[in-house]
Give the backbone structure.
Amino acid sequence: MSLINAHIRTSKIWKTAGKLVVATAAAVAIFTTSACSFGLGGDNTQSSSASDTVNIAAIYPETGQYAEYGKLFKRGWELALDEVNADGGVQGKKLGIKYYDTQSDAKQDAAVAPKIVSDNSVIAVVGDYSSSASAAASPTFNQAKLVHYGFNNSATNFTDTGEYVWTPQITQATYQKLNADTVAKTAKKISVVYIENDWGKEAYNEFKEEAQKQGIDIAYESSYLADSTDLSPILIKARDAQPDAIVNIGYGPDGALVLNTLRNKLAWDGSFFGGQETSEFLNNAGKNAEGTIITGSFSATGVKTDEQKKFVEAFNKKYGYDPGNFEVTAYQAIKDLAYGANKTSATREGIQKALQTVTDFPLYQGNGGTFKFNQKTRRADNIEPILLIVKDGKFVRYDE
Amino acid sequence: MVDTLFSGLIHGSVYAIAAVGMSLIFGVTNVANFAQGSIVAVGMMIAWWLGTALGWGIVPTLAVVIIVTAALGFVMNFFVISPLEGRKPIAALLATIGVGQVLDNSLQLIFGTQTRQFPELLPTHNLQLGGLRFGTSDIVSIIVTVFLMFALWSFLKFGKTGQAIRATSQDPEAARQMGIPVRSIRNISFVIGAVLAGIAGVFVGLSNGNINPTNGGSIGMTAFVAATIGGLGSIPGAVVGGLVLGVVEALGVSWLGDGAHDFITFGALLLILIIRPQGLLFNSSSAVRSEPMTGTFLENSRSIELPRWVNWLLAGLAILLPFVANNALAGAGTQVAIYSIAAVGLTLISGSAGQTILGMAGPFATGAYTSAILVTQFGWSFWAGLLMGGLVAAITASILTFPVWKLSGHYVAIATIGVGAVTVAIIRLWEPVTHGSLGIQGIPVPQIFGAALDTQQKLLLLDVIILLIALWAVSRIHKSHLGHVFAAVGADQDAAEALGIRSNAYKALAYAIAAFFAGLAGALLAHQYTYIDPTIFNSAMSTLILTIIVLGGMNSPLGAVIGSALLIGLPEVLRFASTWRGIVYGILLIIIILFRPQGLWSRSVAQAKIGKNDDKATENIQEDAQTVAEEVEA
């Protein structure tokens, strides 16, 4: 018995030694990898005053399922950046953009936000594509007093996170009021299908409220999931309700799917309000898009001011096509932040102060001119939505 | 109504054609191929390119698609699947997830990111029935499906190779002894499965119209559901399953609206599995009989055990980390810690009790929502919300999963996908309480004794402490009598039953414990993000949580931390790779699993090869003797 015990004891010692080696190796490996990739120690990275470049951090989907929008954003940003630096940068310093691919995935936004905060050369953050991804990063930026400029995040409560969270997006209340008023002019009875996410839900609630005020009868309504491939079951019901018009609140690809299903599969030729001001929508809907009316914030062919025209021309020269809604809002985000920094200082405090005090940010959307922020809601106050119609495969302004 | 029914049938025929390949691969190779949907997307995108850029017709397009996908199937089996033969099938499953990653990201890199129209290789809307137009494409699709079904059936029944395939699937060892070249038979099966996926891709493209290179994941998931409804391994079952799913979805969506689409799809899956546990067309001769995901005699692995003082040392270092970490490391650290907490419980149910769970996003979301609602709407404290998050997650997961345990093998794993998806679908639909798609905003950050945890370092400290408690608790359970019972259930369910152990009750208990920790993790995440909505808790999250413990080592609580650090940390470390990030990530995943199929933090104990591993076997016996000795001493 004691022999066995002795044997067990010896083998135990050896085993312990072996395990110790494994454990030490593992611990060392974990700590060195983390130290290498993230850096241990404090956050006193390069100080911004010493460097002659200040940066805006862009959190956006470069890869993943939303990559198409990331690509459009990047085109707008790059053009704006070129122009800002050609005009002498911000307060004599060169402006740069630091790109962070998040795939618009909340978990990656949360992981990358602290990294951005500790980079002292970053004076503001733009992005992300979706509200849920943006919102996962907002608290971190707000706590660090770094402006989070969610230029694509139109959700009503997006800026509620704190005083450093801003968006120039027009609220859905404004958009959908115009949308419903326009529909009411030609239709008394409608069917509505809308995308099932935070944006679509809110947009539809606003639309419904205004439509009811206008006395429109909503004969059928249904949401749809963004990844549904066959919308016939709801569109058959939408069609069979015999509406004067069918309204769709959604994005480009799903808007094209709704329209194509209605026209090609269900042989329905009534009037259609919906889709999205993107080439993706036009390319996918093709001829079916003709005559479609949507409420947007920008039309490349319907621009009014010289600044707007210069932007469209420069964009077309650089990329070979007319910019759409996503490109212009991204472009404008960089231009506005640079404009603000030039009025105050090229620092984090400067950006925040600019958003609070500057009242003439250049506006490229809508009718052009300038806009300012509502200090209570931290949203753009005076951007007017505009109506667009598809003619000859292009969006043009619809002015009756 | 007639229109709806008919449109359901047409859409169902597309599900059917995708499900046939899925069912075949599952049936004959016993590998749950998570890359199958991505191969469908490969076929679809190649056909798109040939049809639009080169203007080719349907026949040459199909020919090229068949050649390319055949090559892909061969390469995939040769380099990734066949080296894992004889290992736990879960390793192969993980490898296919890696392959899917590589394929999806490559397609996006090659073909661009935008959604586009599939070329009209065949007329798609030239015929009409009632108020519904359809096309030659739909008719050809149905003919091709039926043809493939009969061709495959007769090939498997009468063809020499076909018979060899069936023999191999039933018992590879016996087949080898009968002189069947098992290796080439496996290659052939994979090639056939991939070609079927490629052909399906062409018809899926024709039917959907709107296509995107990233469609593979959702196509694969619906094909999987359709194949399961029909009865896995049954080719006619796959066709029936596809049609049934198409019609059920059409009628359900027509009735409840498309917002309830997921609820209907996965609800139908659960319902059918509960009523007919082996699928609609199960018959004992054609369907899968062995249980690939629970394979027990192939190989076993044990967690690498560290001496107690090393554990204390590591715990000490972990506690120290928040005090020395900068923002970036602490930020990534919080995510690693939260996902470790979510995964650690799976070592009990999936590791010990041997039941793969694919729907952990369900309890994770339940925990997040419970805590968020209690704290924001009812003014509960953070701690109370956190604890309730765990409890409610455990309770609802147990109730929803209750009917599932009577199923067996991988049907349970698939049912858990359904439970996870249905949970999130209910959260989305239950608007008065959860705010549905609008999400919950303004969830307060954790408060401890009145102090808000408002920096990454403070949050990390909280997460690390809860992680350590979770690790300690789960390790204790592993070593307790209860843990041994779980292990007994996992090692040999029949033997366990013979000893009077009610194995299903113990599996349910192990799952409830796992759900409790996932709920805690969800609550922590909600209070860190301060905003949650249903899109956060998607199927990718479920897959990630399972992948974490497979990579770390199924039995090893510490492995969950290592797996989480790798899977969450890698994408951050790989930022230099830019657009190649997803591809590099997938390749690394495959390489890791090829070198350590048993997981990073466990060592394999190959029972079948005990002769070769005498040292290890002796070591195990010693270890057991030691435990007994210690128990006697105490």
Observations:
- Chain A has two domains: 53-170+305-383, 172-296.
- Residues 39-49 of chain A have pLDDT under 50 and may be disordered.
